[in-house]
Amino acid sequence: MVQETSFGNQRYCNSVGSSEIAGLSVGVLLFESERISRRDFFSFASRRANTCLNGAAAAQAVDYENFLKLLSDERYNVCPIVEYDASYRPDKVNVLLRHDMDYDNGYGMLELDYSHGFRSTSYLRLHADAYYTIEQVAKFYQLLEKYGFEVGYHYEVIDLTKKGSVIDWNAAEKLFQEELSFLRQFFNVRSVCPHGGFANLPSRNFEFEQDESRLAKFGVFSAYKIPFSREVNFHYLSDTHDDFASTGLDYFRVGFGEARAGDVVEVLVHPQPGRWNYRSYRNDLPPALTPKIFQLPTTSVTLTTSSTSSASVTTSILTSRSTSSATSLTSQASQVSTLRDSVLDSAWQYLAAPITLCTVGALAFYKIHQRKLERQRSRKFCTSCKRELLPNTTFCDGCGKPIE
Asked: What is the mean pLDDT of the chain?
C-alpha cells in the first residue's frame, strides 16, 4: 500500500519499509514532481540526519590532529586521489587521503590538513543545501586547488532520478553530465565518487559506475576504481567501518600497520562532529591559510578510466620547483610571490570597475577630440578679409569677392 505525505508545497511517497527521520516517515519521491522537489526533499532529510549520523559513530569523537600525527611518520607518503601514479613511491606506504563532504563544509578538517603539510581530495555534493552550497565554498576550495589539493564530484544521480525501484539510466547520465559541467565551472574535476545516501535511507548511486565505460565518457574515474598503471597491494580504510566506531584511532593504526612499502592505502575520513574533533566553521568566514610551500609532482597525470575503453584524459598537475634542498632565499622568494598573487587575485575585483570606467572615458575623449579636429580642417576663410565662410559658399558675404 502506498500513501502520500505532504511537506510544504511538495508531495512525497511513503512505501512499506521507508525509514523514520525525526518522526516523519519518508520514502521515494513522487516522480511527477519537478526536479526542485527532489532537491528540497534531500535538503529536508539532510537537516534531520544528525541523530542518525551520531548513532552511526557510537565511539567517542577522535581528535583529528592525532590522526594526522599518525600519518606524519616518515614511512607514509600522503597525496590526493588523482596523484595515485604521479606521487607514487615504492619505498613508502602510499596514502591517498580523501574526504567526502556529506554534512559539513570541510573548512576545519582541511585547515588541519593544510597546516600539517598534507594535501587531500575533497568530494563535494551539489545537494548538501542545508550545510553548504558550491557557491558558498568555491573560493576556499579554489585556493586549496592552487596549493595542489584536489576537488571532486560526490554524485547522487541515481537516487535523484530513479522511478521507484527502476533506474532511469538516461536521466541519470544527463544529470551527471549537467552537474559535472556545473562543478567544472569552479574546479578541475578529475575524479568522482558516489554518495551513499543520508540517514538510514538506502542508496543505489554505486550502481552508476558498474559499467566502467560510463565514467570514461566524461573524462573522470572513480575513487573506488582507481586505474593503477602498476600492480599494487591496495587497502581501503574508512571511518564508516564498525571497527572505527568501536576502537577509534586504533582502527587506523592496525590498518596502517598491515601495509608495507609500495602498498597503496585509500583513506576516507568524513568531516563530521559525531566522529571527529576539529574546529567547525559554520556561518563564519573560512579560515585564513598562511602561504605554504608544498612538494608537488613535476610529472603529468594520465587518467585512464577503463581498461576496455580507449578514452583517456591527460591532465597537467600543478608543478613546483621548490625541493627539500632549496635554499632559504628561494623559499622566501616563493612565499612572497605566492602572497603577491593572492593579494592581486583579491584586489582585481575592486580594480575591474575603475579600469573599465577609465577605458570608456578615454575612448569618449578621443572620439570628441577627433571630431573637433575634423571640423577645424573643414572650415573655409576668405583670402581677402579673412571672414569664416560656410563650406559651400562661392562668394564672401563680407567683401563680395569670389572664393578660390
From this structure: 77
